[in-house]
Design brief:
single chain; alpha/beta; Rossmann fold; Molybdenum Cofactor Biosythetic Enzyme, Chain A; 2 domains; 18 strands; binds adenosine-5'-diphosphate; ATP binding; 4-carb_acid_sugar_kinase_N_sf; kinase activity; transferase; NBD_C_sf
Length: 417
């Protein structure tokens, strides 16, 4: 059996791709699985990222699924484990980052781990335990209005402490700047003080490389995707561009967007401003008239031959609030996710072979509906977002807040070149 080095568990599908992307770019051969496989691994790779859809489900169920993934990764020989969450630390008041971390620590019988969503390439930095998104604090970044996980407190020590039974501490930027030995020394002190999970500051990729060295041998790492750039070197691996080659792209081009994040709103606006065809799904209309799905597909069939089309439910915070007040947050989310997943199936039947999906939960629903079990990771379009290949289709799963405003157009240009 091929033994893997790093076993990763991601709490959503776009996050899994983001992590896989960083590992591939740092020299690891990576497969991303959709859910926990029933069979042993049948691929020669250095890391596997098991993607779950556990970010907003019941915290006990999230912990159960994560431990099941851990058991499968252990059986594939993984030497170190990585729990990946969102770079904006998306979690509900009930969890799930804390409860999943607790369950994984128990299952690995380890009394210490770190937690940091820092990903400087994507503008996520942590300073004194406070998370910044670009130039602003988390709760000013638009994340305060997220449909499922509104983030109203940028202090991650506080946010995580409310979710875990472990004591939460901090390894701050001054320690990180002193390097590997200082980080290890700080970890020893924190452990003596009874801290079980340390939030870690990181302002640059250099910080993450330093941190990576100090994490060698730590059984469990919990983080966004950023920390991954520093881990492959611990296993003697170096960047290798051939790790991300995909077959040539074929078929028609479409974008499905169910994200209401600020970056996605800008991307939808950019696509429409270019005069490209776009079809908007209204959740209230959808509730009363499921015929909307076939309407969207009939519309798509008329436009697909002319170039990429966009089908979206993306809405500004005010419009989102109106829908959520009428339908409930969860119900509105599921209604839209199911509709977009069915539309994705219909688009593939219409000949789409290049599909951009915007939104973490949305991507999870689409990938499951398309029956994709394993994704091969290709070239990066923007930080955290690579093209992938599965079932003969090119697909990219864009986390809501990732990507430049021209992302939808750029993604297809990248494939063409
Ligand atoms: P992101 O990556 O931006 O967080 P997600 O897809 O993870 O995006 O989450 C967006 C959630 O909002 C999904 O559950 C989606 O179905 C839901 N949603 C999308 N559009 C609307 C809308 N117009 N009204 C209500 N909910 C919506």
């Amino acid at each position: 059996m091929n033994k893997i080095l790093l076993g990763c568990i991601a709490d959503d599908f776009t996050g899994a791709t983001d992590l896989a992307n960083n590992l591939v770019r740092s020299g690891m051969r990576v497969v991303q699985t959709v859910g926990v496989p029933n069979e042993p691994l049948d691929a020669q790779v250095d890391a596997v990222v098991v993607s779950l859809k556990s970010r907003t489900i019941d915290p006990h169920e999230a912990a159960r699924q994560s431990v099941r993934a851990l058991d499968w990764l252990k059986a594939q020989g993984a030497q170190q484990f990585y729990f990946k969450y969102c770079s904006t630390f998306d979690s509900t008041a009930k969890g799930n980052i804390g409860p999943v971390t607790d369950a994984l620590m128990d299952a690995l019988a380890t009394d210490f781990t770190i937690a940091t969503p820092a990903f400087p390439d994507a503008g996520r930095t942590v300073f004194k335990g406070y998370l910044f998104v670009g130039d602003v604090l988390l709760h000013e970044s638009g994340m305060q209005d997220h449909p499922l996980t509104p983030m109203k407190d940028p202090n991650l020590v506080r946010v995580l402490q409310a979710q875990t039974r472990h004591r939460v501490g901090l390894i701050d930027y001054k320690v990180i700047a002193q390097g590997e030995d200082a980080i290890r020394a700080r970890i020893s002190v924190l452990k003596k003080e009874g801290v079980g999970i340390a939030i870690v500051d990181a302002l640059s990729n250099d910080d993450l490389y330093c941190l990576g060295k100090a994490l060698a041998g730590m059984p469990l790492v919990t983080a966004g995707s950023g920390v991954a750039i520093g881990l492959p070197a611990n296993f003697g691996l170096a960047p290798n561009p051939s790790a991300c080659a995909l077959p040539a792209a074929r078929g028609l081009q479409a974008v499905i967007s169910g994200s209401c994040s600020r970056a996605t709103n800008a991307q939808v606006a950019d696509f429409i401003a270019r005069g490209q065809p776009a079809f908007v799904l209204d959740p209230l209309e959808l509730l009363n008239n499921p015929g909307q799905i076939s309407l969207a597909l009939t519309w798509a069939a008329q436009h697909l031959q002319g170039g990429p089309v966009l089908i979206y439910s993306t809405a500004q915070p005010e419009a989102l609030k109106v829908v959520q007040e009428k339908l409930g947050v969860q119900q509105a989310g599921e209604l839209v996710e199911n509709a977009l997943a069915n539309i994705a199936k219909g688009l593939i039947e219409l000949g789409v072979g290049q599909l951009v999906v915007a939104g973490g939960e949305t991507s999870g629903a689409v990938v499951q509906a398309l029956g994709m079990n394993q994704l091969q990771i290709g070239d990066q379009i923007d930080p955290g977002v690579p093209w992938c290949a599965a079932n003969g289709i090119h697909i990219t799963l864009k986390s809501g807040n990732f990507g430049t405003p021209d992302f939808f157009t750029k993604a297809f240009d990248r494939l063409a070149n």
